[in-house]
Amino acid sequence: MIKLNCDMGESFGAWSMGADEAIMPYIDMSNVACGFHAGDPQIMAKTVALAVEHNVTIGAHPGYPDLLGFGRKALNFSESELTHIVLYQVGALQGICSQHNAELAYIKPHGALYNVMMRDITVFSAIVKAAASVKLPLMIMATPDNHKHIQLAQSLGVRLFFEAFCDRAYTDDGHLQSRQEKGAVHQTLGLIVEQAQQIIEQQSVQTTSGNNLPIKADSLCIHGDSHLALASVKALRELLSR
Amino acid sequence: MIKLNCDMGESFGAWSMGADEAIMPYIDMSNVACGFHAGDPQIMAKTVALAVEHNVTIGAHPGYPDLLGFGRKALNFSESELTHIVLYQVGALQGICSQHNAELAYIKPHGALYNVMMRDITVFSAIVKAAASVKLPLMIMATPDNHKHIQLAQSLGVRLFFEAFCDRAYTDDGHLQSRQEKGAVHQTLGLIVEQAQQIIEQQSVQTTSGNNLPIKADSLCIHGDSHLALASVKALRELLSR
Amino acid sequence: MIKLNCDMGESFGAWSMGADEAIMPYIDMSNVACGFHAGDPQIMAKTVALAVEHNVTIGAHPGYPDLLGFGRKALNFSESELTHIVLYQVGALQGICSQHNAELAYIKPHGALYNVMMRDITVFSAIVKAAASVKLPLMIMATPDNHKHIQLAQSLGVRLFFEAFCDRAYTDDGHLQSRQEKGAVHQTLGLIVEQAQQIIEQQSVQTTSGNNLPIKADSLCIHGDSHLALASVKALRELLSR
Amino acid sequence: MIKLNCDMGESFGAWSMGADEAIMPYIDMSNVACGFHAGDPQIMAKTVALAVEHNVTIGAHPGYPDLLGFGRKALNFSESELTHIVLYQVGALQGICSQHNAELAYIKPHGALYNVMMRDITVFSAIVKAAASVKLPLMIMATPDNHKHIQLAQSLGVRLFFEAFCDRAYTDDGHLQSRQEKGAVHQTLGLIVEQAQQIIEQQSVQTTSGNNLPIKADSLCIHGDSHLALASVKALRELLSR
After folding, report:
1. Among A214, C228, D87, D179, who pairs with C95 as Cys (CB 3.0-4.6 Å)?
2. What CATH topology corresponds to B3-240?
3. Which of A87, A90, A104, A133 to mutate to test the interface with B (most CBs of B within 10 A)?
4. ipTM of the predicted structure?
């Protein structure tokens, strides 16, 4: 059955973001920020405890080292540099998890790192190498053709999970529409649930130009920083439990 | 036999510190900075690779989150906050180590965190709890009376290593003299070797007032940021191989 | 007439704090965070523009370099180091103000820096020296005896403003009760208005033990991060315009 | 007469970079790092004091907010965001300068910000607007055609200084060769002095392909982080005083 995943632990220091405590009970997988784009050791510990309490699977959500920009700016690093940047963050979260005897179950990159990974096979390779190193699956975006991703991941012994987005608009090339553009983020619950239903039932998603792209997803992602986040996870939980 | 340990990987970004490549061949244990007071994912990866190349044991060297102050300022955190701060850094280094199939062998706190740990049993407890969580030994300072440390560590199943300092002056209460004060750091190779010899042969150290404190050390520490660092490790390596 | 001041611009990057847009119309003086404990160049620019729009006086609100701890941890710096830390932040805000032809009108330290300044004359001296350097008045806490502060400030040609707090409990020694302790922050509008009224009309404040301390304030401070902040500034504005 | 300028104050916290004390006596203009790519309030204060001592003109050397990458990574900011980022840093240095009654005399961006400014007129515009706001001249790179730069700067009332590089290779399009490529930084004093001489005497520079580009410079830049930096400034000082 398809799983619900949500970014969690994206507060920092005295600043709050997201409604983690309200959302956690409704999701299956929590992508926990690791301190580079959001999160700090205290917030990570609190988030891991919350996930454990609700039997939610914990994944690492590493980003570019860019606190000021919330990891939404692409930064030019070499392949091996990126592998180290991901390993650092994944390891850090594993350290925090150790206190709860919680196991880290997967890696899902954040923001610009996620977007660049989907467009640039060298960046994807850097992250797969990190995943191989810590022996964890990697969650990436389901696109009409993930052939190259699957091939590279298999060659390094890394399992891939595929996710689709319910609250973001898709372009015809199978990417998410840039947040800079209007309509990038769905603003009604109806649109979100409709997109989820199509992904689950028809294994496809409608693009901004009206095309239907075939995608096969293991998980549905809801962004926790939206004002519709809580309503969305409740509606999707309901949808999935029918 | 007594081991030589040295702080390593304390560069940051474009800034260099220490003569890691020159010193690594002469030491047994490298305390690798974890990004909070010094070090970054690239420098950590390079340092781990260097340690592996020279068969040097790798330890985590976590500090307070204080890059600007090089971890030499005490910061007021609660016990559980400090546990998380240490777990984050230790885990991060384990993540980096995974790429070399290198095992992390121990934890040794840095700078102010080390000093506060030796003076404040709550801070010591925070760090022991982190060590227990990741099942690693903890290296602390050999003092005339480590009774309370041993008791607390044993109760949590954490093994302790004890180290003595060859290049720092001791006060009568068994602590290191503050770096703010004159004479805190030995400025001649003669003084350093002499102090090492006394620690090894007589299991004692002479304080600033001329007293001899009994201490029993598993390891001797040399500070890598001193201009005498390389000469010291060479002289101590020679001393230990007699 | 007594002025209302409020801390403003304490968001950071993607994280929001405070209801600046709602509160700004009701206050006289805005203490704008300068990037060390909160704020960044974009948030500072937005806050300055908002203050200019509402004809609100702009003050610099420098803090310790401690983003993670929101400037609420005391850090051990020398006197001259602190002067530089304050000058950096005040200058940075002046740079931002230049775009709006806005004049910076005063300095009011934030959080731990404010508290330490009130307790430690060396830290106060460091900040007065910064104020003298940029030729700006300094806002400090009105206490029953500000004699030493006045003397030192006068000797360096720095004008002092004195503020009192409406939403915080006072201890008998004239300091604010620590946020660690219960009752440190007033939780009802009634308490806040009552304290304001006593400060304005009787030039005194009641301490946690029931004593009345004589204090003479030029300004009343309301903390913008409280859930009562907006209601408080409205009530106090009303009180002051009678 | 042509002036010598050099980047100064590029240490950070406990980490040193450059031979500022040795180089300062030989230069005319010091570009002082402002804390975003390098420098901190203490280092800025020390650098300003050193410049004042040697009667060296002080310029602001702002960079992208990228301490880890030493400001050598381009970051995607909007025009107004960049203006604020520059104003923040320039103001911060003015704050520090106030303690020495030293006047800031110009702005020269650092690293990637400098390179992007030379290639992208929107980024140039952002920086000119900051310069206009604080009423300071801006130093940019002398290229065969600075027409667009001059036009835009004049329209905002900003004076431009033009500099040429003695220690970096030029490409045929009048830019500096990327540091990623071999030969980007001259490795012999002979090459550096030769390039300087050609710039001064013939108002041209030879590119990597052997072409001569006409450039007209007010100032020659020497990079302070090169091992040849001190020898270079001495040789160039000698050259200029003939």
Report:
1. D87
2. TIM Barrel (3.20.20)
3. A87
4. 0.96
